[in-house]
Amino acid sequence: HDIQDLTITHRYPTITMRFYFLHHHLLPLLLLPSLTTSSKILIDSNGIINRSAPSTPTPSNGILTILTNPSTTTFFPSPEDGEGLTVDDSDDTLVLTTTGATLKSSATNIISQGKSASAAAGVSGSVVLAGITSDDAADFMNTRHGRTLSSVFGTRLLREGKEKTLLVLAVEGGGGFEESEVVRDVEELFDACVLGLGDKVVEKGVGELEDLYEVQVVSVENEGDVDKILAMAKAAASRSPLLPTTPILPSITQILSTPIPTYHTDDPPTIATSIITSQDAFARQSKSSRAKLTSWKNRVQRGLLIESFGKQATALRQRCLEQYDKDTISCSGTNAAKYRLDLRRQLKESIEKTLAELFARQVTIAEKSTLQNFNKILLRQKPGPDVTSTYDKNAAAVRAAAFAFDTSLSDLEIPSLGLTKTEHCTAITSQLNAALLSFPDSNAAQARDLKTTKAKAAKQKTPSEKSIDVGFNLVAMVRPDGFGNLQGFAGYSLGNHGITVGVHNDADAPETISQFGGVRPPFLRVQPKLNFDVEL
Asked: Mutual orientation of helices 268-301 and 337-380 as an angle, nearest 10°?
């Protein structure tokens, strides 16, 4: 009837020794696992797994992991001395708490290597990284938090499934920090992990941080902020990849047995630095090329051609790529080499795409200008006294317009990109011939003919003396071998007499041969003319 119950609890191993005092005699009646303690040690501070820990099933509300920094005072729950990874199942949401990696990790301690943090995060639906100071936020990648996340990301990338994990970065102690800069550093760490794993993650189709994580950066100044963050994290804990009732410790042990590339846990800043170097070089060369390309676009938008465009474009492309290669040569031998080449390809494609667009738009401007000038020549050109004379004038106008177009495109060519004039010069000849055929029916030609007819009808004849004037004219045309790149005329007149000699090396030009029915034109053609001017 006089029984006193004394319960003594020892934290590791987590058991309760229950004794009964009966008539002043101490009798050990029962030795059993604790049913009253909610926090259990799964891994101690030396990295030794507690395989005798009671089995803890996964609750339906999921799992939350809190990663802390022992060297920083924090408002969040953190492991005590001797504890490495603990589990608290006192709430509907199971909470795992462990410390992150250290900058100088032990070769055997999975705690300092960040493996316990990555294993805990690997079974959780939400992760809170606590103990971040404002100084850490300013240089996040080179802190122990950066090493911790590198290990967490490496484990997550090797895991199947694309469910998003909530990642909360809690910056404690106030102080100014840029949230965007912290997120950028985290993205670069994730990119470094993707590069390190290479083909192992290509098949998964995961390339960006937002594919697997929902990242939030929050400021913590008091315990009220902690309560809000924990409530938010517990709401997302159900994203855990483990099914309800799945034992926790075997799942964590399985993750710990999976090797992660050394670079994720040993030297992430080196890879991240290479990524930053590549990104900075890419940004500089993109900005440099964009400034020049923008000025060219503005000129083309005004309907103007860029002087010596081909030479300038080739020099710009070569200079930007060579400078990028020079600035990133230190990254060529690292795991970021593929990332460096990807950025180079993006820079190259961006420049070449804009140059191709500028070339095409300038060709259009040159075509439009050539056709307009050709129509002006036809309007100014007076009809010849016969069909042959008119034909010669029209052919000369076509050749002159085609030659001017060819000259313009010679300054635009970029042979290294396959942007040449050949196709366009052939097309402009067809357009000029089509314009020549349709010219008599055009409104401009009809208006000119009407104006000429009215002028002749309104002209009054003036009385003059009767006279007969005779004039002799000689027209000669020399057409040597060639494709029409040389043309010239010379003439001399004396009163009613005159001589005109022309040279045009178009005997081999397809359009010339087609005009003569498929045969070459005569080398020399002489046409004498005798003019009689009779006034009655």
From this structure: 10
Instruction: For residues 177-197, give the mean pLDDT.
Output: 81
Note the pTM of the prediction, 2 decimals: 0.49
SS (H, E, C) 130-166: EEECHHHHHCHHHCHHHHHHHHHHHHHHHCCCCCCEE
Residue 455 has pLDDT above 70, yes or no: no
d(CA 488, CA 468): 34
More confident residue, 523 or 262: 523
Q: Which residues contact 338 (CB under 8 A, 6 or more apart)?
A: 195, 198
Q: Which residues pair with 490 in a beta bridge?
A: 501
User: Which of 356, 496, 371 has the alpha carbon at shortest distance from 434?
Assistant: 371
Q: How many CB atoms lie within 10 A of CB 187?
A: 16
Q: Could you give the CA distance from residue 408 to residue 400 in angstroms, rounded to a whole number?
A: 13
Residue among 253, 279, 130 at smallest CA distance from 195: 279
Cβ 168 vs Cβ 126: under 8 Å:
yes
Handedness of CA 309, 315, 318, 321 (dihedral sign): negative
Rg (CA), the chain: 43
Q: Using an 8 Å Cβ cutoff, are 142 and 189 in contact?
A: no
Phi, psi for 257 (deg, rounded to 5): -80, -10
